[in-house]
Backbone:
């Protein structure tokens, strides 16, 4: 047999980046042998067997002789089963069973079943976005239609089987394009059964939730059991505005990397259990996957029973809480995932839950209380903008009232949140929580008396520079909710009390 060479294009996974991979196939005479090279991981090595079976079962010919497939560039680690289709097509082209004119303008992704069927692989969305930037046509498994449709369907062809791809290349039979209707689009998250109207009393906590929603601030509820902390936290997504197109695509791309699906345009709400490992939380593993904090990108990460999470997990949150992304160092290179989540957490003030409670006596020793609160480290707590104690007093007042006025619904609160959010975006392009130093200077100027108050509180409570900035951002949100241009001392005082309400003096004071 004459020596023949053919190349096809595909993409590897590197966080949300999808660097191009060139698949080179070389077929020559000699003893039958099939080698696969180019810094490949185990799953790719198994491609050989799948590709061989898929080609034979598709009524095509698996070439005799010596086959070498190289995945380039050689220094890029390649994992997963997504190269199967590109490898099979390269071999078919190298053995003269395919016309190659169109190959340079086409990218191929998908795992092959032994029968020749095409299976969906994780990370398709990031790859499709990159292919589109390069102006190339992409062929993807038909099973990934929902994901492909998110991009509008143009320049994408769906194939259910290897033979369909062969027919498309040889006979110019057009592949079906994803239909846009496949993507589920929604405005704001549906409120459903989790409406704020069901939460009785807790005026301060409800207010804090509204402020957090309006400015994107991180929030911690502390208080005795059964006062509605978990209930309140679960109602945060229902207060948030709908996602923008870019946010929705980024979120969907992260979920696609993890191999899962989401309802498109719905803000994620992730509530990992406190037994979660560091890898599950921030991402990682041999073949790195995004963790909970990235799955919560542009949405909410809810950590219930905060002190029960392991120390390394909590410490790993410090970097992403500030930068909105996480880097996972691997031997060969560092993978970055977006992680711009909003943290909402809940905890009891002590092991028995009643420290600081007016009615029930706490059964813990001061040492036990101290140790419990120490589990949430100072540096982590410093990054939480709002710390609100949820007491049974707030609850009781509402219950004993002769005719309690009905609580506001999520829809009403969301209306106010939306107005404040639109104002922030028009002014600075980002939510107040994401204002940088320049943003703070331009948009968070304080009136002189407010400035004096901030300096006094800073000295009195020994607030860090980060905490002082956070108070200014929250004060900005309070002014926005009130529809006011200037940050007055009342806004600042309210922001301070929302930050400093850290238990009854048991070490949570910032
Ligand atoms: N403020 C409230 N208004 C209405 N129902 C409430 C309120 N607080 C608690 N409940 C009722 O009590 C149940 C438990 O509340 P929730 O789980 O929110 O308490 P929690 O503060 O998170 O307690 P824990 O500290 O034990 O986790 C709720 O499902 C609800 O039925
Ligand atoms: Mg709870």
Residues:
């Amino acid at each position: 047999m004459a020596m023949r060479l053919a190349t096809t294009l595909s993409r590897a996974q590197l966080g949300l980046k999808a660097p191009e991979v060139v698949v080179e196939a070389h077929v020559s005479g000699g003893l039958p042998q099939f080698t696969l090279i180019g810094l490949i991981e185990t799953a790719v090595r198994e491609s050989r067997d799948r590709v061989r079976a898929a080609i034979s079962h598709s009524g095509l010919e698996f070439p005799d002789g010596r086959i070498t497939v190289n995945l380039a560039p050689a220094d890029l680690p390649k994992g997963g089963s997504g190269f199967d289709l590109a490898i099979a097509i390269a071999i078919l082209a190298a053995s003269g069973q395919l016309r190659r004119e169109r190959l340079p303008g086409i990218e191929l992704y998908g795992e092959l079943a032994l029968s020749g069927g095409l299976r969906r692989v994780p990370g398709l969305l990031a790859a499709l976005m990159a292919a589109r930037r390069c102006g190339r046509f992409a062929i993807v498994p038909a099973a990934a239609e929902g994901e492909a449709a998110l991009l509008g369907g143009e320049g994408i062809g769906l194939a259910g089987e290897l033979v369909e791809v062969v027919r498309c290349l040889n006979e110019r039979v057009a592949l079906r394009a994803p239909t846009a209707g496949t993507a589920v689009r929604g405005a704001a998250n549906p409120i459903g059964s989790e409406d704020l109207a069901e939460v009785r009393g807790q005026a301060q906590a409800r207010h804090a939730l509204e402020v957090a929603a309006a400015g994107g601030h991180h929030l911690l509820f502390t208080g005795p059991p059964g006062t509605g902390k978990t209930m309140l936290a679960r109602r945060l997504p229902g207060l948030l505005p709908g996602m923008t197109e870019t946010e929705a695509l980024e979120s969907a791309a992260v979920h696609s990397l993890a191999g899962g699906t989401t309802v498109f345009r719905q803000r994620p709400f992730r509530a990992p259990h406190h037994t979660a490992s560091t890898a599950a939380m921030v991402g990682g593993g041999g073949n790195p996957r995004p963790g909970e904090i990235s799955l919560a990108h542009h949405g909410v990460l809810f950590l219930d029973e905060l002190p029960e999470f392991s120390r390394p997990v909590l410490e790993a949150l410090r970097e992403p809480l500030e930068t909105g992304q996480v880097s996972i160092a691997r031997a060969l290179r560092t993978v970055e995932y977006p992680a711009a989540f909003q943290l909402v957490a809940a905890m009891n003030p002590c092991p028995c839950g009643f420290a600081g409670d007016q009615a029930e006596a706490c059964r813990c020793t001061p040492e036990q209380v101290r140790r419990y609160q120490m589990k949430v480290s100072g540096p982590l707590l410093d990054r939480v903008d709002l710390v609100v104690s949820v007491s049974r007093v707030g609850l009781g007042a509402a219950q004993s009232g002769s005719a309690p006025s009905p609580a506001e619904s999520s829809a009403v609160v969301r209306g106010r949140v939306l107005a404040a959010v639109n104002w922030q975006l028009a002014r600075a392009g980002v939510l107040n929580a994401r204002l940088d130093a320049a943003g703070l200077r331009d948009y968070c100027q304080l009136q002189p008396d407010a400035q004096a108050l901030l300096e006094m509180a800073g000295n009195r409570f020994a607030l860090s520079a980060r905490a002082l900035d956070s108070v200014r951002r929250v004060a900005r949100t309070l002014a926005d909710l009130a529809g006011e241009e200037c940050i007055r001392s009342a806004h600042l005082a309210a922001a301070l009390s929302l930050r400093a309400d850290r238990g009854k003096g048991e070490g949570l004071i910032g």
Notes: Residues 229-230, 304, 346 surround magnesium ion (ligand 2) (CB under 6 Å).
